[in-house]
Amino acid sequence: MDIASMVDRRPLVIFSKSSCAMCHSIESLMRQFGANLTVYELDQIGNGRHVEATLLQMGCRPSVPAVFIGQRFVGGADAVMSLHLQGKLVPMLIAAGAIFMWHRS
């Protein structure tokens, strides 16, 4: 399975590793928004090494977390946090259908 088919028709996909603290932080942030997300733990799936190599070729350094919103690669933890701090992350998630309503607390 290639990356395109793994993110197809999924509003939010995070490629992660079970031992990656930053990956868990990004997942937690998305869950706080109530996002509909799909997480692939590369160290727990059969083609994980191949997927990781492809992510590195795409310029994701480090390879995880790698975040796709609306089938578009947005980057790793730094890019996601930057979008969040700029107030752009939630609108992207809404546009992709990953979250439907957002009420700031």
UniProtKB/TrEMBL annotation:
Its main location: cytoplasm. Belongs to the glutaredoxin family. CC-type subfamily. It comes from Parasponia andersonii (Sponia andersonii). This is Glutaredoxin-like. Keywords: Cytoplasm, Redox-active center. PROSITE patterns: GLUTAREDOXIN_2 (PS51354). One of its GO terms (cellular component) is cytoplasm. PANTHER family: GLUTAREDOXIN.
